[in-house]
User: Which sequence fits this backbone?
């Protein structure tokens, strides 16, 4: 029985519940006091009292956000649900402004690509922008998302991962894929599982919530699903196709960020002709909820316009997230350094304490200012420094992130030598001092007016 959904449906009908010294009390419209309902309340009394103590937000619902029984059945049968109205254009504007002001659009492999930077991981990636940018974190903590996930049977949820999908004009298909334990974009590495499900929670729902930031259409690359495939585990074969035909090869950034020089990539043994396929267009601000175990893909962008979306992954707190980190291995299966990664408890409680769970990142004021100044320079909001000033600023960045230079001296006539020499001169300077000096220098650079893309 989905107890959360059962209780929330009673609340919509006018029921009220409260805990009085470990006694379950309720008030309800007389016509709703059926024998069947009363028997169910009696059977699940201890569980309801626990929810009242530990997850009171479940009882504070917005009826407009409650899923219907038909919608829940749709999700259970097909593995996905949507599009659902969620956010107004003004509500997603803060996220859009954040992303557009913290990205650049260079040409890679002869096609334009939207490039982002993660200020927690200190590397270029579309992943986990919510760890630094509050508007993104707040979007995915919203009851407009979380309450609906509660309706699907998960009262306790961690927000553990986000990703941006900028499908620009000419970007190709993302091929069919599903996820159980691995989120690899090329080949599966058994020692690098992103998730480990305890035996008792092996069927825990691994939700993805996909938010359209631009209108998503069949022409510009909307999502599509193979209905019912969340009930089947398809075989994945490593090194089965050339890298240029890999699952995510249609997104241009994949070549430079994720492929890491691999010549071959893995694929699933899956024939879409054996399944009912459904494309799901969405308006900006709408959401699509799906199980990561459901086979999904996205169509190519055949228009001249961008299709931008952002997704978030949610999981039960008992599931181990990046378990290899506890062995001191902080490089995940996609070459991201997740040492400072954390999950956010967005609903219910966490009794398991097997993951790093925080309300927000633990950067101090100096570190936050340093990252903001880095973003100004990275995303060309200030005039790019030249010559000695360029080497000084970049050497301070290297010192702030990596500490004293440990690299071998390059040849003096090489392009790398001036930066190496400038960095070497900073030896002995603390990371904190380097951050302060870097921020001071970047703040002094002339500002530029940047056109949004």
Assistant:
């Amino acid at each position: 029985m989905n107890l959360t959904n059962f209780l929330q449906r009673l609340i919509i009908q006018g029921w009220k519940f409260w805990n009085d010294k470990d006694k379950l009390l309720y008030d309800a419209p007389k016509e709703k006091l059926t024998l069947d309902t009363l028997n169910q309340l009696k059977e699940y009394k201890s569980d309801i009292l626990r929810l009242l103590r530990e997850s009171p937000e479940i009882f504070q619902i917005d009826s407009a956000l409650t899923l219907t029984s038909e919608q829940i059945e749709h999700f259970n049968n097909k593995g996905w649900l949507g599009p659902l109205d969620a956010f107004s254009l003004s509500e997603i504007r803060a996220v859009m402004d954040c992303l557009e002001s913290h990205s650049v659009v260079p040409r890679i492999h002869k096609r334009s690509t939207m490039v982002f930077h993660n200020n927690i991981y200190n590397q270029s990636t579309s992943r986990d922008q919510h760890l630094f940018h509050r508007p993104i974190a707040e979007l995915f903590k919203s009851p407009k998302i979380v309450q609906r996930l509660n309706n699907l049977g998960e009262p306790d949820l961690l927000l553990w991962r986000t990703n941006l999908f900028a499908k620009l004009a000419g970007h190709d298909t993302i091929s069919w894929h599903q996820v159980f334990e691995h989120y690899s974009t090329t080949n599966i590495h058994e020692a690098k599982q992103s998730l480990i499900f305890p035996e008792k929670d092996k069927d825990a729902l691994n939700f993805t919530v996909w938010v359209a930031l631009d209108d998503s259409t069949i022409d510009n690359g909307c999502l599509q699903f193979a209905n019912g495939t969340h009930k089947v585990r398809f075989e994945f074969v490593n090194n089965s196709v050339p890298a240029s035909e890999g699952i995510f090869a249609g997104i241009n950034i994949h070549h430079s960020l994720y492929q890491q020089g691999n010549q071959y990539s893995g694929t699933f043994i899956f024939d879409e002709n054996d399944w009912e396929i459904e494309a799901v267009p969405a308006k900006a601000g709408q959401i699509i909820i799906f199980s990561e175990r459901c086979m999904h893909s996205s169509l190519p962008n055949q228009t001249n316009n961008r299709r931008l979306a952002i997704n978030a992954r949610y999981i039960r707190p008992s599931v181990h997230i990046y378990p290899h980190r506890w062995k001191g291995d902080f490089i995940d299966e996609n070459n991201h350094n997740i040492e400072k990664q954390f999950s956010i408890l967005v609903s219910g409680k966490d009794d398991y304490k097997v993951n790093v769970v925080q309300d927000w990142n633990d950067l101090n004021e100096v570190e936050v200012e340093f990252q903001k100044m880095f973003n100004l320079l990275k995303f060309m909001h200030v005039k790019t420094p030249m010559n000695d000033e360029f080497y000084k600023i970049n050497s301070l960045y290297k010192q702030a992130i990596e500490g004293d230079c440990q690299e071998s001296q390059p040849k003096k006539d090489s392009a790398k030598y001036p930066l190496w020499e400038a960095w070497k001169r900073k030896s002995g300077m603390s990371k904190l001092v380097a951050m302060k000096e870097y921020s001071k220098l970047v703040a002094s650079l002339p500002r530029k007016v940047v056109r949004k893309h």
Notes: Residues 387-402 form the longest helix (16 residues). The chain has a mean pLDDT of 91. The two ends are 48 Å apart (CA to CA). The chain is about 30% helix and 20% strand.
